[in-house]
Amino acid sequence: MPFCQYCGHELPSDSRFCVSCGRAVFQGNSSNNEAEVDSISSTPASFSQTSVPALLSARELIMKKKILSLREHYDFEDRSGRKLGEGDGNFFQLPAKFVVLDSLSRSEVMHIVGKLISLRHEFTFYDSSGNALGSMKKKIMKLIGEEYWIERNGSEVLRVYGNFTEHDYRMEILGSGGASTLQVAQVHKKWVSLRDQFGVSITEEVDHRLVIGAVIVVEHVEVTERRS
């Protein structure tokens, strides 16, 4: 079995992302390793290089929330205004569920399902085949600020923290023992001025579905909490 060059976790032979730390990996000792790393840049697991949806290959996204609607709908665009995908849910659905579609292929890239009964907000991300990508939970014993984490196979792999109501927060890959090791994404208002729009920048190698899923969950929780 090959091992992740970042955290040392054992990997399936065909893995493009580490199931432990979430970072892009490559196997082999050939002289083409650098080109191989470039070819898998921002390519999530379970997608071949030729079939990666546009939504999951973009490093910079603008997320727009559809207001005055009974449905909870988000559009994802690039900075030029080209629509890349959308996330759609329902305020009154129990448990909460969202489906994320790629605009070009009109195919599902992931879906998100909330847990009906839980002491904390908890959502599980699934790929289009129904395989679990990870679960996102909100920490309920924080003295200062708010924080979420994403765990896979019982281990925390991604930390989400910052000012959620102001759309100013970060995502970090976690190392052994839960220590933050690398910021991989940031949500901000740098590119937009409208209240219901904000930017998402993916700065390092990470499964884009975890980032997109985390942003949708944060927005959903903040909206439902404010309304209640």
Relative strand content:
35-45%
Architecture, CATH level 2? Answer: Beta Barrel
> And the CATH topology?
Porin
CATH class: Mainly Beta
Helix content: 10-25%
Pattern of helices and strands:
HEEEEEEEEEEEEH
Give the spatial strand order of the biggest sheet: 1-2-3-4-5-6-7-8-9-10-11-12
**Structural class by SSE content:** mainly beta
Mean of pLDDT: 79
In total, how many beta strands?
A: 12
**Count, helices:** 2
> For this structure, what is the CATH homologous superfamily?
LURP1-related
Q: What does the radius of gyration come to? A: 17 Å
Give a structural overview.
The protein has helices at residues 33-39, 208-227; strands at 60-66, 71-77, 83-90, 97-102, 108-114, 122-126, 132-138, 146-152, 155-163, 168-174, 180-188, 197-202. The chain has a single domain, classed as Beta Barrel (Porin). The protein has a 12-stranded antiparallel barrel with strand order 1-2-3-4-5-6-7-8-9-10-11-12. The chain starts with 32 loop residues before the first helix and ends with a helix. The chain is mainly β and 228 residues long. Helix content is 12%, strand content 37%.
